[in-house]
């Protein structure tokens, strides 16, 4: 992986981290700028091969996060930001960041649940919805009925450490 691409993308992740913590929202200008600069820089430095690399990375990051968006796990800003990250760093690195971010997100989620002392209620809810799905084969039972029941936190809290882990281990 190119060092310049790691640091270039980190600038956009830092901006997204700050705005996500403050407003639980990632502005489009950050995501679009990350995507455009990733495509242009790869295309300029490596030519058509670099542009293809960036397009494949952007598509992979976008597609995987889009699935997570439809499941209600992330917001639309995260989806667009991962397209920009993929343009900078490619398919493999994007998939690694997604994997580590999901793991960090699970840890953060459990820390929040344990600190609020709602573990028992949430576990009963998960078990009852899963059992209902297995017995009735109705996928709607897996989704939470109330939006207030969803555990919400800025996903960038998990993405930034996931990004750094992917860099260290890749």
UniProtKB/TrEMBL annotation:
Keyword annotations: Membrane, Transmembrane, Transmembrane helix
Residue ranges constituting the Prepilin type IV endopeptidase peptidase domain according to the UniProt record: 9-109
Keyword Flavoprotein in record: no
Superkingdom of origin organism: Bacteria
Residue stretches spanning the membrane: 52-71, 91-114
Signal peptide: none
Family: Belongs to the peptidase A24 family.
Name of the featured protein: Prepilin type IV endopeptidase peptidase domain-containing protein
Organism of derivation: Paenibacillus auburnensis
């Amino acid at each position: 992986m190119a060092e310049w691409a790691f640091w270039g993308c980190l600038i956009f992740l830092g901006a997204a981290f700050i705005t996500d913590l403050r407003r639980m929202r990632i502005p489009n200008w950050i995501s679009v700028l990350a995507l455009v600069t990733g495509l242009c820089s790869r295309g300029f430095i490596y030519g058509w091969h670099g542009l293809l690399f960036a397009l494949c990375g952007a598509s992979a990051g976008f597609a995987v996060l889009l699935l997570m968006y439809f499941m209600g796990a992330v917001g639309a800003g995260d989806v667009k930001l991962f397209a920009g990250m993929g343009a900078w760093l490619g398919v493999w690195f994007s998939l690694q960041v997604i994997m580590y971010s999901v793991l960090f997100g699970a840890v953060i989620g459990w820390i929040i649940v344990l600190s609020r002392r709602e573990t028992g209620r949430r576990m009963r809810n998960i078990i009852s919805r899963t059992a209902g799905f297995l017995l009735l084969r109705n996928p709607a039972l897996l989704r939470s009925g109330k939006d207030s029941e969803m555990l919400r936190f800025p996903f960038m809290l998990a993405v930034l450490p996931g990004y750094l882990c992917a860099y260290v281990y890749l």
